[in-house]
Structures are given as C-alpha cells and as structure tokens.
C-alpha cells in the first residue's frame, strides 16, 4: 500500500532572481498533503525519499535565516507540525507547510523559516551528486551561484512519485 496520494499534483512556482537569491528557472514544487504521515512519520518520509533515489537525509527544521543551495537540489518532507516558510527570497512567497506536505527546491531556491510549531520536523534529502552547500544571500555568493546552478543535473526521479512523477516533466533546462 502506497503512502502517497496518487491523485496529487504539485503547486508550481517560478521565483525570479532578485539580485541576491538566484532562484532557478525550473519551478519550485509543493505537494500538499501528499504523504500519509499517520504512522512513523519520519521513517515513512525517509523510506519514500530513499526508494526514489534521494539520500543524504537529515531530520530537523528549516533554518531561520535566508539561504539557498547552489550545487544541489533539495527536498523537504514535513513529518510533523507546521511552519510558515519564505521561499524564493525577499521577493518570493511565504507558504504554510504542514505534516504530509513535500517541497522540492531546485538549486538556488531561497528559503527561510518565519515561524513554526514546537513539533515541526522536516526530513531533508538530496539526489545523488555533490554534497549540500549552504549559501547566504550576498553579492559574492550570488555571482558564484550563477555559474554553478546551471551545472546541477536534473534528478533521475521525483522524490515523491518516482521516475514517472511530475518533476520529470516540469523540470527542463531552458
């Protein structure tokens, strides 16, 4: 029995480069209430991501300062609680994410936790490739990121829906 709602289609948002946070021309994806986290939520999300080829996992929250990753894509699966997270930098969008939601951030997508419930827990993971890097929005980091982001490979699978998932059709190089 699958832990993923099969009728789910992600919300897609393309954030523009704001001069400090580069973002990415490929869309940021959010699956709302896509994963059944009623039993062993952290382990459920970890199994799902692992089964779909995303690894180097961690359990935590989302940092409360603006940052992005310039060498790797990232997935955030909410295991418990809820949070308000600013995605896309200052000019982006604040979204409520809650248990069962999954956000997929193409390399360069800014994110920062604005507020969270006491029980908020996220499982983070990455597709195979370089290790996660953490960049704060500065002019120097932005200039370097503009060179590395186009080199980040498109993953071989969607961390939620696998090789036939929406990410495979929505993430294309322009």
Automatic annotation (TrEMBL):
Listed name of the protein: Uncharacterized protein YjlB
InterPro entries reported in the protein's UniProt record: RmlC-like_jellyroll (IPR014710), RmlC_Cupin_sf (IPR011051), UCP019307_cupin (IPR014500), YjiB-like (IPR047121)
Q: Which residues form a coiled coil?
A: none
Fetch the CDD domains from UniProt: cupin_YjlB-like
Tell me the Gene3D superfamilies matching this sequence.
Answer: Jelly Rolls
């Amino acid at each position: 029995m699958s832990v993923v709602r099969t009728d789910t289609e992600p919300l897609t948002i393309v954030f523009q480069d704001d001069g400090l946070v580069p973002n990415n021309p490929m869309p940021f994806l959010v699956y709302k209430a896509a994963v059944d986290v009623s039993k062993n939520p952290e382990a459920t999300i970890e199994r799902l991501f692992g089964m779909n080829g995303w690894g180097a996992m961690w359990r935590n929250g989302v940092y409360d300062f603006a940052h992005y990753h310039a060498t790797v894509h990232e997935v955030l699966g909410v295991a418990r609680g809820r949070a308000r997270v600013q995605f896309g930098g200052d000019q982006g969008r604040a979204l409520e994410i809650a248990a069962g939601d999954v956000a997929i951030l193409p390399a360069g997508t800014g994110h920062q936790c604005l507020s969270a419930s006491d029980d908020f827990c996220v499982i983070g993971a990455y597709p195979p490739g370089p290790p996660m890097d953490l960049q704060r929005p500065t002019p120097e980091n932005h200039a370097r990121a503009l060179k590395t982001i186009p080199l980040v490979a498109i993953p071989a699978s969607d961390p939620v829906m696998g090789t036939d998932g929406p990410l495979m059709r929505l993430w294309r190089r322009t």
